[in-house]
Amino acid sequence: MRLAGVMSVLVALGCRREATAPVSSRADGALPTVTAPRVTGAMRWDGRLDEPAWATARRIGGFVHPTTGQPELGSKVNGDARVAWSDAGLMVAFEVRDREAVSSLPPSGRDVHVWEGASGVEVMLQPGDFGDNQEYFEVQVGVNGARWTTRFDDYNRPVVRDESGAMHFGHEDWEPALECGTAKTSDGYVVEMLVPWATVMTSRVTAAPRAGEAWRMNLYTFRDGQRDSLAWSPLLGQGNFHRATRFGRVVFGG
Q: What CATH class is the domain 31-252?
């Protein structure tokens, strides 16, 4: 009984260390890389992350300040993300330690400005290993499931104002068949998603990736109109969240 009690304490401490493991600085300018394993099996997109695929997915190692690349312990949107891939698409799961996450947007909202009205997460994806801002995609998902999806031809382009005065960023008619689920947790919230390959084909990348290939990707967490935000790959003063030269690399493992 005593041994069992000691083991229980050690397990609990181990879990706590994993949950609060310090994030390493990424201020040296090197682009972070994550090797995503190829996974199989049925998935339920409910924010629970209890499928075997997520147990084998690779963690990115946490988030840092978008400008400095340093850990930001005072941020409310610290956390981690897991990445994997399947025949169907790219899989990303965010675990955000934001206990105060809120949203003023309806859960069924589509093409609503998530960054303005909700705590949420963001995926920037450029198919291929170009890093030149040509043909890239953006997906934002709020804590309650509201979404904003768009694609861009070039760095922050196009951006237009319609006759009513509303701003439109990129081609907002891009509506991927996104599989997505969110859930509140004791530490904050989870967003899991699958971005289908067929929805992110471009003039230069016309097929799903093969094992060993790399695409450009960046991941962000945010709240309060992005006044509090963190990045996987920091920008280091080289532009805004769209700067593809600062996107990290996701390598598709076997």
A: mainly beta
If you write DSSP's letter for every residue of the chain in order, what string do you get? Answer: -HHHHHHHHHHHHHHHHHHTPPPPP-TT-PPPEEEEPB--S----SS---SHHHHHSEE----B-TTT-S--TT-TT-EEEEEEE-SSEEEEEEEE--TT--B-S-TT-BS--HHHHB-EEEEEEESSS--S-SSEEEEEEETTS-EEEEEESBTTB-EEE-TTS-EEESBTT-----EEEEEE-SSSEEEEEEEEGGGG--SS--S---TT-EEEEEEEEEEGGGTEEEESS--TTS-STT-GGG-EEEEE--
Q: pTM for the whole thing?
A: 0.92
The per-residue pLDDT for range 87-113, each reduced to its tens digit, is 999 999 999 999 999 999 999 999 999
pLDDT > 80? residue 4: no
